Amino acid sequence: MRIGLAYNEKPDRSTTDEPPGPSDAFAEWDDPSTIAAVEEALGLFGSVTRLEADEFFPQKLALAHPDLVFNMAEGLHGQNRESLVPAICEYFSIPYTGSDPLTLALSLHKARTKELLAYRGVPTAPFVCVERPQDLARVSLPYPVFVKPVCEGSGKGIFVNNLCETPAQLRERVLCLLDRYAEPVLVETYLPGPEFTVAILGNGPQASCFPVVGFDFAALPPGAPPVYGYEAKWVWDTPEHPLAIFQCPAPVAPELYREIERTALDAYFVLGCRDWCRVDIRVDRFGVPNVLELNPLPGIIPDPAMNSCFPKAARAAGFSYDELIQDVVHIAWRRLTGQPVRLPATRAFALEASA
């Protein structure tokens, strides 16, 4: 099998025009170490061709014409950026892992996601989508509220001061985010309960949850609000001072645990996710799990010391990193062909010998 690996690599900041200090410009893209680890895991199936998802991706894909594209590309620009790689794959009739362009576009747009979830009866916090400053007059939600850019991921635009207690704070943060990200801002009722994230693998009746990951906000610096945003992901959590914020499996009552899993799977099916996805959930003041957002292109940092939720949940379920990546390929190939992946003879023999 010939596999194409579609990705976006974080640039070396020393060669970019980014100002010094923390920046979330490329937070969604992957480090070279992650790309290399995925490439190594995919080597089980045959030859792997790197296909960086830049402006030359269509030509590179057409020339390589792999049997399958493993898609972990976040895209370059615009609110539909996560849809571009799978859409181009479909244009060339090349199968790929993961969700289709429609699901990726809807999931990235948090307001569209919440509209679908609410329509289908999946709990999600009340919200208003603010497209321009005048729309603030439509916000009648009780305080506190939480704000975030409507089409960003990996903590982009989610800062500790996005929790707003007053109309003045709300206006200041919304205007700042509108200006910085040039996209609508989601304003939603703040959910005061615990937060979780659920890694899901599989399709149809075979879709299942890895052990639920819980957040221990007591690990945040003193005075920080209980929010897992940009600072917690990329500033406070360092190799020298790791942030011990995750608990997996989450230590919660069995009834709540089952409800979290059920809610996550409901959201997975409502948005039409395929193969894998991570669903973020937070509990409201009534004890009901609410969906925050879906991540059909989940982060997969290989280093166990890093707080990467999907690999962390997979390890708790007994999966190595390679096995996680390889299982996604097996699941996608069975969805596409109805058949298991046929391993190259040399690799199949090596696996049998090591068993």
The residue-averaged pLDDT reads 91
CATH topology of the largest domain: D-amino Acid Aminotransferase, Chain A, domain 1
Spatial gap, N to C terminus = 23 Å
CATH superfamily of the largest domain: ATP-grasp fold, B domain
Helix content: 25-40%
Low-confidence stretches: none
What's the gyration radius in Å?
20 Å
Tally of structural domains? 3
Task: Give a structural overview.
The chain is an alpha+beta fold and 355 residues long. It has three domains: 2-99, Rossmann fold, CATH 3.40.50.20; 110-189, Dna Ligase, domain 1, CATH 3.30.1490.20; 195-335, ATP-grasp fold, B domain (D-amino Acid Aminotransferase, Chain A, domain 1). The protein has eleven helices and 13 strands. It has helices spanning 32-42, 57-64, 84-91, 101-108, 110-119, 167-181, 230-235, 254-270, 309-316, 321-337, 345-354; strands at residues 2-7, 47-52, 68-71, 127-130, 145-149, 163-164, 185-189, 195-201, 208-209, 213-215, 246-247, 276-283, 289-295. The strands form three sheets. Strands 8, 9, 10, 11, 12 and 13 form a six-stranded antiparallel β-sheet that branches. The chain has a four-stranded antiparallel β-sheet with strand order 4-7-5-6, with helices on both faces. The longest helix has 17 residues, at 254-270. The chain starts with a strand and ends with a helix. 45% of the residues are buried. The model has no long low-confidence stretch (mean pLDDT 91).
